[in-house]
Amino acid sequence: MFDQLETITHRPAPFEFYTAAELWTDPHTSKKMLAYHLDGEIDVSSRRGAFIDRSASWIGSHFNIGSQTRVADFGCGPGLYTTRFARLGAQVTGVDFSSNSLGHARRVAASEQLRINYVNQDYLTFTTGDRYDLITMIMCDYCALGPTQRQQLLSKFHTLLNTGGAVLLDVYSLNAFDRRRESISFEPNLLDGFWSPAKYYGFLCTLKYPKEKVVLDKYTIVEAERTRVVYNWLQHFDLQTLEAEFTTAGFEIESSLGDVAGATFDPASNEFAVIGRKP
User: Which residues 6+ apart lie within 8 Å of 12 measured at CB?
Assistant: First the structure.
């Protein structure tokens, strides 16, 4: 038992393991994640419906989205933004890991007769000959990626954008990092059955990496037939660090925002957003 607890509480190197597929492709957890996405009253997989309405409206206005605009949403989930962009007349592509989420997105598009190209793929490996005027990545997805993955993704964005095209994404701030605390917890059926339809025992170790400004929520799920570990990494940024990643990838920073609904940048906030332009 001692050795098992040592393994459960072991502190890996930052971004040593990447287990995103465990959340988004597992039949049970992907259904749970979709349910969170579609609950417009909570901020879990997606933000509240009222915020998404306001955000999509601001994005449409700020980027002058219309019939000649080509938009790609990375990590599009069940199409909460892609659907709204398509309603504005844009030519829209959505890329996501989860077949469950994309199934919902496609049904909505079909019911409204919206032409949206949905791609069921890890956006880190997504390639296309298409070029876009705007790429969005919303709900701090960028923070779940390690440094090498982030640079590869920004390089991909640079390639996929037309000259003058823009990237809009949001991230967690250093204020959010400071507010997190290390902890260890144990609970039967942790998160109310989120991880499995059968009985299981769940351990959650929250670990902080002060030098790297990274938080890890490490879930160890013990079932009758298997034990698995899911690593939920969250990189936190200050404005200068994020801007440096963009400029290294060839972007110019157009503006810094409080959120993806156009709020004024607030240095005391838990989140912020940036717009990068391809010169």
Answer: 216, 218, 231
Nearest to 134 by CA among 93, 95, 194: 93
Across the chain, mean pLDDT equals 95
Give me Rg for the CA atoms of the chain. Answer: 19
Q: What secondary structure letter does DSSP report for 264? A: B
pLDDT in tens, 11-68: 999 999 999 887 778 889 988 887 877 776 666 667 888 999 999 999 999 999 999 9
Domains of the chain, by residue range, sit at 2-13+176-234, 27-172+237-277
The H or E element that residue 139 is part of is none
Residue with tokens 């892609």: 82
User: Closest Cα partner for 200 from 210, 186, 190?
Assistant: 190
Site of tokens 């095209």: 165
Q: What is the bridge-based pairing of β-strands 214-223 and 227-237?
A: antiparallel
CATH entry 3.10.100 includes domain 2-13+176-234: no
> CB count, 10 Å around CB of 17?
13
- How far, in Å, CA of 90 to CA of 112, rounded? 14
Q: Which of 100, 110, 93, 116 is nearest to 45 (CA)?
A: 100
SS (H, E, C) 48-59: CHHHHHHHHHHH
Query: In 30-60, which positions are buried (b, 16+ CB within 10 angstroms) versus exposed (e)?
Result: bebbbeebeeeeeeebbbeeeebebbbebbb
What's the rounded Cα separation, in Å, for the pair 133 and 128? 14
Per-residue tokens: 145: 């990626």
CATH superfamily placement of domain 27-172+237-277: Vaccinia Virus protein VP39 (3.40.50.150)
Phi/psi at 30 (nearest 5 deg)?
-65, -35
Percent of the chain with pLDDT over 90: 89
